[in-house]
Amino acid sequence: MSAAGAVRDFPLPDLGEGLADAEVVRWLVAPGDAVAVDQPVAEVETAKAVVEVPCPYAGRVTALHGAEGDVIAVGSPLVSVDTAASDRRAGPRVPGAVVPEARSDGPAEPGGGGDGAAPGGSGSGAVLVGYGTSEGGRRRRTGRVLAPDGPGTTASGAPSASPARPGGRTPVVSPLVRRIAREHGVDVTALTGSGGGGLVLRRDVEAVLAYRRGARDAARGADTAPPKAAAPDRAERGDERVALRGARRAAADRFSRSRREIPEATVWVDADAGGLLAVRAALNAADPERPVSLLALLARFCVAGLRRFPALNSRVDSERSEIVRLARVNLGFAARTPRGLVVPVAHDAHAMTTRELSAALRGLTDSARAGTLAPADLTGGTFTVNNYGVFGVDGSAAIINHPEAAILGMGRIVKRPWVVDDELAVRPVTELTLAFDHRVCDGEEAGGFLRFVADLVERPELLLGEV
């Protein structure tokens, strides 16, 4: 028999970026299994990537709170562990555990009072939002810890206020949460966060907004809870509902925000792709073991173009009314996966050779399709390139990947009539399209960038002058 109170629920921690939930992809333990400190217990898919979640204390698993495919909210129990079954000392760190990077909105202590540490006082080596590491590296988070059932309410049903946090900052994980609260006039200092250590999450702000809407409807005499109509049988209506989860939900949110916030404009040009195809054939013949893709060549041309036209490698800081021109080129590109569209990022693309860049794009694509990208591989992009010619289309008015300032795409390469030295010829032609944030530059600079890239597509040897 376990000692009273020895069974502890390990709640799903916030895996960064203020994500509200995660889908269980695969359980790595079963009830009855012994677990050591920092041993991964589940693979979960967030809106960013598939990651392993390490348990911050040792013992024996008594329950799994969900099946594979279930979506679990941050702060809800993930597994239950009987800590009395361990030797009450910190277990060894399991080699190969994937540990998400912690956010730094506020210091943390394990689980707000010991739940995040191994029995006996030695801390978990895992770095999770709301969970500490070791005693030496542990930092305290201000704000109280909530009961497992989430934020409290007042007698009127309004979200309850948190106690004062003397000398400390209200723990809000995501800048997005702060922005939503600011836009809707919500005072986050008056909220009780439902995340670990009192973290104020997006759902906490949305709960306040939902309560306000309900109060307004009640004041107007509106029926806020209409009777639920009987849903017709799916076979009769022929409809299908597909949940927006993981990468698909993240992409939907990003696209919507881009359309709301970025005043984009689009320019395009046709280019003779004969030179592009010739240089790729020459490079691959010279070194078949390290092939170069068309996307890699286009990406290399874009990097050279961004050196000449740095305004396209920037972002807008709306809070400070500033345009931030970025020194590094972190190149994003669209990749299709079984889980939906993702945009992996080749960091420091400006420092890579053409073959290195091609290898980086290929490796990130393979990882994306296998679902093994790290969260860092999906963030930090400064410019996006896309080869939508693989879909058999000539052009596309692409959506800018917020908060970047531009995206360039290439359509399919097809044989078309083309004038060469005043003579009509049949040439392989492609369409290049650039969507750009009109706040960072005007059409002259955007057109100059696009024309420069098109010139390199037609005559890749011009790149030698840019090296």
Structure characterization notes:
InterPro entries: 2-oxoA_DH_lipoyl-BS, 2-oxoacid_DH_actylTfrase, 2-oxoacid_DH_E2_comp, Biotin_lipoyl, CAT-like_dom_sf, E3-bd_dom_sf, PSBD, Single_hybrid_motif. One of its GO terms (cellular component) is cytoplasm. One of its GO terms (molecular function) is acetyltransferase activity. It is a single chain. The chain is 23% helix and 21% strand. By secondary structure, it is of the alpha+beta class. The chain has two domains: 106 residues, RNA polymerase II/Efflux pump adaptor protein, barrel-sandwich hybrid domain (OB fold (Dihydrolipoamide Acetyltransferase, E2P)), CATH 2.40.50.100; 221 residues, Chloramphenicol acetyltransferase-like domain (Chloramphenicol Acetyltransferase, 2-Layer Sandwich), CATH 3.30.559. Strands 9, 12, 15, 16, 17, 18 and 19 form a seven-stranded mixed beta sheet that branches. Helix 6 packs across helix 7 and helix 6 crosses helix 8. The protein is globular.
Task: Reconstruct the topology from this structure.
Blueprint: E1 7-11, E2 21-27, E3 34-35, E4 40-45, E5 50-54, E6 59-64, E7 71-73, E8 77-82, H1 175-183, H2 202-219, H3 234-237, H4 246-261, E9 264-272, H5 274-286, H6 294-308, E10 314-317, E11 322-325, E12 331-333, E13 335-337, E14 340-342, E15 345-346, H7 354-370, E16 383-387, E17 406-410, E18 414-420, E19 423-437, H8 443-458
Parallel strand pairs: 12-16, 16-17
Antiparallel strand pairs: 1-8, 2-4, 2-7, 3-6, 4-5, 6-8, 9-19, 10-11, 12-15, 13-14, 17-19, 18-19
Helix pairs in contact: 6-7, 6-8
InterPro entries: 2-oxoA_DH_lipoyl-BS, 2-oxoacid_DH_actylTfrase, 2-oxoacid_DH_E2_comp, Biotin_lipoyl, CAT-like_dom_sf, E3-bd_dom_sf, PSBD, Single_hybrid_motif
Keywords: Acyltransferase, Lipoyl, Pyruvate, Transferase
Pfam families: 2-oxoacid_dh, Biotin_lipoyl, E3_binding
